[in-house]
Amino acid sequence: MDVMQVADAGAAALVVEMAKSTWSTARDAVARFFGRGSGQAEGADEVVEQELRLIDEVRRQLLEGQGQEGLEGRLRGQLTIQLAARLLKRPDAAEALQELIDQVAAAEGGPQARTSVHHNTNSQVVIASGAINAGGGIHYRSPESGR
Asked: Is the pLDDT of residue 52 over 80?
């Protein structure tokens, strides 16, 4: 299991869910993720609450800062680190995180990519939902040269 890959996918799913009115349902799933494997160890409930406070703070920042360039990426990075740390402590929690990722994907109508392109003068951006065969290469020609 690639912990960072799973954590990054989980962070991406959480950032998507945080902006929705159905966040409370996703938050419950996050609580289960952090609670998994805690057992009845002393202080386990406090650890889960601390993790949820961090998640809630990320959501607050997201909602208050909507429209700020790069904000989602920074918050996603924070969440990736938080989720990866949990997965390193409790690899058995990966299944719960994958369930959360799958729930988000299903609610969105399947996996989707979000792409933002900035400052790409004299370049092309190719976005595809499947494989691209560029065996012959991709050749860029400015619109002016096609006239």
From this structure: yes
